Amino acid sequence: MQSLMFDIKKTEHDIQHFWEDHKIFEKSLELRRNGKRFVFWEGPPTANGLPHIGHFLTRVYKDFYGRYKTMNGFFVLRKAGWDTHGLPVEIEIEKELGYKKKKEIEAYGIAKFNRKAKESVWKYKHEWEEMTRKMGFWLDMDNPYITYESPYMESIWYILKEIWDKGLLYTAHKVVPYCTRCGTPLSAHEVAQGYKKVKEKSVYIKFKVKGQDNTFILAWTTTPWTLPGNVALAVGSQVQYVYVKKDDQTYILAKDLLEKVLGEGYSIEKEATGADLIGLEYEPLFDVKELQSDKSYKVYEADFVTTQDGTGVVHTAVMYGVDDYELGTKIGLPKFHTVDEQGKFVSAAGDDLAGKYVKDKATEDLIINKLIEHGLLLKTEEYEHDYPFCWRCNTPLLYYAKNS
Ligand SMILES: [Zn+2]
Question: Measured in angstroms, how far is the CA atom of residue 332 from the centroid of ligand 1?
């Protein structure tokens, strides 16, 4: 008896050949040439990597639309494209040449490097075309757009200029997870791929209240490198605070965190609400001229303050946190980078810090020692948490306000 089993492979093969032999895609276009146009440009893949199941899935959906519109009588141009720009390409070449730093690329020669990148983007073109054909994705593969070709780039520049002429472009900052080695921000999807559990030194800092002897506001951070950029402290309107005395010094912190931070041997002097603390001025930790203003180094209220960790007072460095930046913008605090795009302190951060990489242990110790020297450190504490690293190069990411 003949098998009634449905032979998927054979059916696929037969349909494919029927389509190709009878030029079905071309005919479906030709028949509707005078119809209303529906234009589809493929969001271009990068052909220096092999296609995977994710590409397959999204392309199935893309193909649905083309076919659906065609069945509705539209003349549906479907143009293939190749993405030849960006980090995936650069990183591949860097790996091939064994380079770790941008300087090595410059020494090799940027033109030569670009030429190599241009060749590499076609590495898996054949596999991509095969996959497109086999999955039955109808697309004009013979006339693709290629992002490194001048007409394409000029079109993008033209579009950008049109937007500019209409006054719809402006420069501001966006705080992004940023890799100082790759010199690029990472998408949320990329960041999610690179979390690692790390043990870091967190610090409890004593911010000296202006005009009050031996009185300090306590704040806490897991990123000591952001301290030279401190311009404000944030308190919560719903948080209850206390002034407490310990070892002849008065500390201000959230009541809920009192024991956790100070242990034993303290006495409460008085209680205060977040609102009571607003406007309190403190002495800057570091002497950074560019951060001075009539609004700097004061206590402000913010809705992101909780008593989950730390002291219930949030150290604010405008350029190194999303909340920080928003608060800084709202108040009008100075927006100045104490750290450059390579992750090194700028000269304004002080002679001993200038040029040092912020995530080095030695740099961190330098900052901590400076605090100790000035009597501004309460204590340090090992803190284990998930920290994002660059999935490409394993560099710890910094939350960094980028010109955008
Ligand atoms: Zn990186």
Answer: 32
